[in-house]
């Protein structure tokens, strides 16, 4: 169980509760959140490339979220949970096995920056009509 799992289920339209896997370690801040998916169970049976394309299109031009290209994700040897510390950035990587119909979507973020505090400032900026990045860059 995790407090964000109902949000993921609701906003993604999943028929089954997803596995939500936040990673913790011996570091003061930064985190990796992993969402394993059985693609064969999703409507339309998307491929890992389909997922990567959807994320890339949705976040294209956004100020704080980057989506790695499929070739970059495939070439990665590891993820560094502290890579974005001190920023309001979030990096999304889609790792998949098209033959098996499986993927893992990983997000890397500074949980003290992009976490609740950064999110609150970003949402306040949007609600009040300020520049979305005010106070966050």
Would you give an account of this structure?
With 137 residues, the protein is α+β, with helices and mostly antiparallel strands. The protein has helices spanning 5-12, 48-59, 70-75, 116-128, and strands spanning 21-23, 31-38, 65-67, 90-97, 102-109. It has a five-stranded mixed sheet with strand order 1-2-5-4-3. The mean pLDDT is 88.
Count of helical regions = 4
Mean pLDDT: 88
Instruction: Give helix % range.
Output: 25-40%
Strand % is 15-25%
Ends: how far apart? 33 Å
Write the layout of secondary structure elements.
Elements: H1 5-12, E1 21-23, E2 31-38, H2 48-59, E3 65-67, H3 70-75, E4 90-97, E5 102-109, H4 116-128
Parallel strand pairs: 3-4
Antiparallel strand pairs: 1-2, 2-5, 4-5
What keyword list fits this structure?
5 strands; five-stranded mixed β-sheet; 22% strand; 137 residues; alpha+beta
How would you briefly describe this protein structure?
With 137 residues, the chain is an alpha+beta fold.
